[in-house]
Amino acid sequence: MDAPVRLRVMRESDLEAVAAMNDAAAPAVNVLGADGMAEHLPRCSAALVAHDSTGVIGFLMALSPGAEYSSENYRWFSTNVPGSLYVDRIVVTPSAKARGVGRALYAAASEQARVLGLSRITAEVNLDPPNPGSSAFHARLGFARVGEQVTKGGSVRVELLALTV
């Protein structure tokens, strides 16, 4: 039987593990390293880790409107889906998939969005390079496609998704 999954606010002491998990998930998310994660954490209005007896098994980082963040996708959502909590990254370790970790992280992010007075959560999923598992996961949660764009100088194409909370 799997150990129970718990959520908590991300701490600075989590950044090494979170950065390793993040960077291992590339190209689904961009590589940041521990220093990049430490720089990114203060701009997040929701930064959560999922953990069990083995340690950190997933995380989510999200930004509210008005954050100082140069992401092409964040800027698109800020313009086209105002009043949303932007999930910049969500990663679950391969060994923890299908345990409800991603669903639990999104449920907590939905609650944070409501607390902040925001009506939607937004996220993007790579179409090229493809990430069909993430596309299917977001569809199961009820995310709807609200756009598509090419980023990173034409090397990445993403579907832009929103979920009413």
Description:
- There is one protein chain.
- A 7-stranded mixed beta sheet has the order 1-2-3-4-5-7-6, with helices on both faces.
- The chain is built from 5 helices and 7 strands; from the N terminus they run E-H-H-E-E-H-E-H-E-H-E-E.
- With 165 residues, the protein is of the alpha+beta class.
- Helix 1 crosses helix 2.
- The protein has one domain: Aminopeptidase (3-Layer(aba) Sandwich).
- It is globular, with a radius of gyration of 15 Å.
Please outline the helices and strands:
Elements lengths: L5 E4 L5 H10 L8 H8 L5 E7 L2 E9 L8 H9 L3 E9 L8 H15 L4 E9 L3 H10 L2 E8 L4 E9 L1
Parallel strand pairs: 4-5
Antiparallel strand pairs: 1-2, 2-3, 3-4, 5-7, 6-7
CATH class equals Alpha Beta
Fill in the CATH topology: Aminopeptidase
Intertermini distance: 32 Å
How many H/I helices?
A: 5
**What structural class is derived from the secondary structure elements?**
alpha+beta
Mean pLDDT: 93
Number of strands: 7
Number of domains: 1
CATH architecture: 3-Layer(aba) Sandwich
For CATH, the homologous superfamily is named as Gcn5-related N-acetyltransferase (GNAT)
Strand content: 25-35%
The topology string of helices and strands comes to: EHHEEHEHEHEE
Q: Which strand order spans the largest sheet, edge to edge or round the barrel?
A: 1-2-3-4-5-7-6
Proportion in helices: 25-40%
Short description:
The chain is an alpha+beta fold and 165 residues long.
Task: List the keywords.
165 residues, alpha+beta, Aminopeptidase, 7-stranded mixed sheet, 5 helices
